[in-house]
From TrEMBL:
Protein name: N,N-dimethylformamidase beta subunit-like C-terminal domain-containing protein
Higher taxonomy: Bacteria, Pseudomonadati, Pseudomonadota, Alphaproteobacteria, Hyphomicrobiales
Protein origin, superkingdom: Bacteria
One Pfam family per UniProt: DMFA2_C
Domain N,N-dimethylformamidase beta subunit-like C-terminal: 264-656
């Protein structure tokens, strides 16, 4: 259904296209506003204080206004496509209903409509109910056929559920009218009721010259889906981004890999709260100056009641520094517009971005659809109302993600640490070439999500002499895939304790058909790359770190130059300390390399910090209790580089502000200045 943006929580919302750009290239602002826009200007956010740029932002001629958007996905065969084929004598499809309350449309074409009212079926013709009252079962595959015979119009619905078979056969004294005005599955032509929560498969038209059928691909299509059979090709449109690569009526449990049995995964799942890429017109445009410095920027949209900032990134196209900061846009997008329903989570603070998401029924990749299936795909072409420099996360009552990363970058600027900048999406596309020439890659507080291509590039970089300064926690964990402006995430049982859990059979990514879930499950990711992975998560007080005896050995002692105390990190903007929110620890059983040394450890976490559900301890409960810790690590690589793990989402938040200095700042300064000055070994030439 189409709905106007609810601006009760935020008067202005929008997005940029592209989300990240190089100097000398254009960026467009697509914005919705319930107030008269007063001015639009560019502000740089990663400097010690916000810097307003004198860059020209021009109107496009399509002024900012109160926009609307569609929610709910469905399938459509347009009238123009139907006109291409011979006379149609019947329609058939397979459907798997999930949770649907109120009025929903199962099928509509011209005057005919199959409608559900709280699960009961009504057959309508020109709005008049011809048959009503049959309860249609959910959570089982149904075959639906609507066709003509000598007596009029016939409706057949059947299931092949062995335990609860269902058969419905109704004949109507109604002349058959071949579809000509468009055929809709899961919605009405007027799109005036909520769309259907259901999986669809095997849509077909019976014509006088043969059968026209659609097989849904396991790989996410970039446009309409072409038919097979009949006199020519007809196109079916999947509207508003339903989920592809879903198990169909043919799935029998013999394989979980759609690449092996594509016919078992030829279904898609429509939801009444799906939202594809928004197509708002651009209201303002910016041509980024060729001399622009790489960094984190925003369009600041001013109005008579205040202003909002819509963030974008300018990336480095020329190497100017030996250090490269990796912007975790995949993590930012996964969390963007998180719903945080009140019956599940206690809010520690208010945030207008989350209120905006709730008011507009927006969903993050941490949320679930109204039928309780997980949200697995989203676009950056949408408001990201929680991606702000003044954002506070309601679960912990403090900054999270972008503002914490900005805290790190501002620290670098204040202390003369130069860096270039690349987004993880750039890294996905460019691979190792995007890292070559740099001595070290520096992460922010929470680089949780990565594609296989990103992780492989980082692994190659470290293997050929580069260093990784992992300044966060719970990083390099979840696998994502990209296509255009879309990002996809399929969660696995490893994540069931923290968020929604997808069916085991539906964890393959529709963008690549590779298994989703954790990178770890594919032999990559946290432990094998960095040596650590999440051990605890909690939203109460953070803890300080204490040095280990190994930290005093020459290989690690340089990190602590100027640090007088054995214990450090008693303050910070994230839960009040250096080790908190999500923290990491080693585990040789899960892949920590023997040459990884633990140089500091944080203990004494409150009971509210929960163990990561994926960990198993040979010693049982006593060993589990002894492993309630965060472990800062250092690993010197044979290639000459090193990997440092702060092992805490709160680490960057414990850095000092402005001209102040503390022990967390000294350690970070020692690390980054060492990496900037280090000379990595030259890469060995391949023998192939």
């Amino acid at each position: 259904m189409r709905r106007p943006v609810d601006h009760g929580a935020m008067a202005v919302s929008g997005y940029t296209v592209p989300w990240h750009a190089a100097a000398g290239t254009p960026v467009a602002l697509h914005v919705s506003s319930s107030r008269q826009v007063r001015d639009v200007r560019i502000v740089r956010l990663d400097t010690p204080s916000a810097e307003f740029m004198d860059w020209h932002v021009g109107p496009t001629g399509d002024a900012a206004s109160h926009r609307d958007f569609d929610q709910g996905s469905f399938l459509k065969i347009a009238a123009s496509e139907l006109a291409k084929c011979a006379e149609i004598s019947g329609v058939a499809f397979e459907v798997y209903l999930t949770r649907n309350d109120g009025v929903r449309v199962l099928f509509e074409s011209g005057a005919l409509r199959l409608q559900l009212q709280d699960g009961k079926l009504t057959f309508l013709h020109h709005g008049e109910a011809l048959q009503t009252g049959d309860t249609i079962p959910a959570n089982t595959w149904l075959v639906v056929e609507i066709s003509s015979d000598d007596s009029g119009t016939v409706l057949r619905i059947s299931s092949d559920d062995l335990l609860a078979p269902f058969r419905l056969h109704r004949q109507f004294n109604l002349p058959w009218q071949p579809p000509s005005d468009g055929v809709f599955f899961g919605a009405s032509a007027a799109n005036d009721v909520r769309s259907l929560n259901a999986k669809f498969s095997a849509i077909a038209l019976q014509t006088t010259t043969g059968r026209v059928a659609w097989t849904f691909p396991t790989l996410l299509p970039s446009g309409p889906i072409a038919s097979t059979g009949g006199d020519g090709v007809l196109l079916l449109e999947a509207v508003n981004q339903p989920a592809f690569c879903m198990t169909s009526r043919r799935w029998d449990g013999s394989s979980f890999d759609p690449r092996l049995v594509p016919s078992h995964y030829d279904a898609l799942h429509c939801h009444d709260d799906d939202m594809g890429s928004l197509q708002w017109p651009a209201s303002y445009h910016l041509h980024v100056p060729a001399e622009a410095a790489a960094g984190v920027y925003a369009f600041e949209v001013g109005h008579d009641g205040g202003s909002e900032r819509i963030v974008f990134f300018i990336t480095s196209s020329i190497r100017r520094s030996p250090l490269l900061f990796l912007v975790p846009t995949a993590t930012y997008l996964a969390y963007a517009d998180e719903f945080l329903p009140a019956h599940l989570y206690e809010w520690m603070c208010e945030d207008r971005g989350h209120r905006f998401a709730i008011d507009n029924n927006l969903k993050s990749l941490y949320d679930y659809h109204s039928d309780l299936s997980g949200v697995s795909i989203c676009s950056y072409r949408k408001p990201k109302a929680t991606l702000r420099d003044d954002y506070n996360y309601p679960l912990c009552g403090c900054p999270h993600n972008l503002p914490v990363d900005l805290h790190l970058l501002r620290f670098c600027h204040s202390n003369g640490i130069a860096f270039d900048l690349i987004t993880d999406r750039d890294l996905h596309e460019r691979g190792l070439a995007g890292l070559q020439g740099y001595r070290a890659v520096v992460t922010g507080s929470h680089p949780e999500y990565m594609s296989i291509e990103m992780e492989h590039a980082l692994r190659q970089f470290a293997a050929t002499g580069g260093s990784i300064a992992y300044l966060g926690g719970n990083g390099f964990a979840g696998k994502v895939a990209f296509q255009g402006d879309l990002m996809e995430l399929r969660r696995s049982p490893l994540e069931a304790a923290r968020t929604w859990d997808g069916p085991i059979a539906e964890q393959s990514l529709s963008i690549t058909n590779q298994p989703g879930g954790h990178l770890r499950a594919s032999g990559r990711g946290e432990f094998s790359l960095t040596g650590v992975a999440i051990s605890l998560m909690g939203f109460d007080g953070a803890r300080p770190f204490t040095r280990t005896p190994q930290s005093h050995e020459p290989s690690a002692a340089w990190l602590f130059d100027g640090v007088a105390d054995e214990t450090f990190g008693n303050e910070g903007i994230v839960l009040g300390g250096a080790a908190g929110y999500e923290v990491d620890a080693t585990d040789p059983h899960l892949g920590t390399s023997p040459d990884t040394i633990v140089i500091a450890r944080a203990t004494g976490f409150p009971d509210s910090f929960v163990h990561d559900a994926t960990r198993w301890y040979e010693g049982g409960a006593s060993e589990c209790a002894s492993r309630r810790c965060a472990e800062m690590t250092l690993r010197h690589l044979p290639s000459g580089g090193l990997i440092f793990c702060a092992s805490s989402v709160a680490w960057c938040g414990a850095l000092p502000t402005g001209s102040a200095m503390n022990d967390v700042g000294r350690i970070t300064m020692n690390l980054l200045t060492h990496l900037a000055a280090a000379k990595s070994r030259p890469a060995r030439r391949s023998s192939s």
